[in-house]
DNA sequence: AAACCGGGGTC
DNA sequence: GACCCAGGTTT
């Protein structure tokens, strides 16, 4: 790397971070467990979204031991609405590994910490640098955007192999004495100044050391190829209430989309008719009315949902639960929307 | 390397 | 609508 401003860049970035950093809940600690939780929550998730989840999570699971012993349903209830629910299950598996294999102490080296469930190259580097102040790279989307501009790197960041270029760049650039502030500074800069569409270069502490700024078009970087086709599925959702006020719910499979979360029964349009479903699962349907229709957008998937409400008899099989019981179950956001609609 | 895995904010 | 976000796992 023939970048001539290594020393100046380090000093300016660390000084700026120390002076301008936001006051965030996980910045009041260096407890590796708490840093770990915050980093997992922050994967593909904005700071403002994470803050209330992090605070509530720490109230309920203040230590790694408490989390290790928690029922998965209670854990998932704390993750409800955050998305990517495998993060929560992997996190719990990870803390259990730490207790069983490392005596309850989060490993302080990349080799061991990377073996933990849900801890990839980024999260490993983030914990090592932020909790242990070790000069390890932690390359996320922010870091690739910032360094693609500072170093004028035009490789396609959508390609997996490109990340190695940035990891090696961080290894050269990182301030060995201030690893925590350096890594957080790169991310903070990406979040506040070096933003995707309209970077605030006039406010940037490392503008003088940024090649893309000198070249004139920092907003053209990073290079990122396109992708993705959106799938569209139409569902009817059936909210069945019996004479005792119980509702029929079901748990989703333990793998795949929204694994282990609970829902009201869904019928994919074009497979089974509502009438066929009713004959198989409930008896003596009385009132039947349409509740609401809405669209829920996932990353690469759209659900078009029509929710129906009906009163019927309790049959032999199926989970019929009170509203209080259902309120304690983790449900995906579209189901929460429906549940909300029937709380009259 | 590509696909899968949520949800919300922004332009 | 498309893009992005303090990514990791599975195929």
Automatic annotation (TrEMBL):
Catalytic reactions of this protein: Hydrolyzes free adenine bases from 7,8-dihydro-8-oxoguanine:adenine mismatched double-stranded DNA, leaving an apurinic site
Cofactor detail note: Binds 1 [4Fe-4S] cluster.
Matches recorded under InterPro entries: A/G_AdeGlyc_MutY (IPR005760), DNA_glycosylase (IPR011257), Endonuclease3_FeS-loop_motif (IPR003651), Endouclease-III_FeS-bd_BS (IPR004035), HhH-GPD_domain (IPR003265), HhH_base_excis_C (IPR023170), HhH_motif (IPR000445), MIG/MutY (IPR044298)
The enzyme's E.C. designation: 3.2.2.31
CDD domains for this protein: ENDO3c, NUDIX_DNA_Glycosylase_C-MutY
Domain HhH-GPD, first and last residues per copy: 41-192
Keyword tags: 4Fe-4S, DNA damage, DNA repair, Glycosidase, Hydrolase, Iron, Iron-sulfur, Metal-binding
PROSITE patterns: ENDONUCLEASE_III_1
Cofactor: [4Fe-4S] cluster
Cited Pfam families: EndIII_4Fe-2S (PF10576), HHH (PF00633), HhH-GPD (PF00730), NUDIX_4 (PF14815)
UniProt key word Transit peptide: no
Alphabetized PANTHER family for the sequence: ADENINE DNA GLYCOSYLASE (PTHR42944)
Cited function: Adenine glycosylase active on G-A mispairs.
Family statement: Belongs to the Nth/MutY family.
Name of the protein this chain belongs to: Adenine DNA glycosylase
Taxonomic path: Bacteria, Bacillati, Bacillota, Bacilli, Bacillales
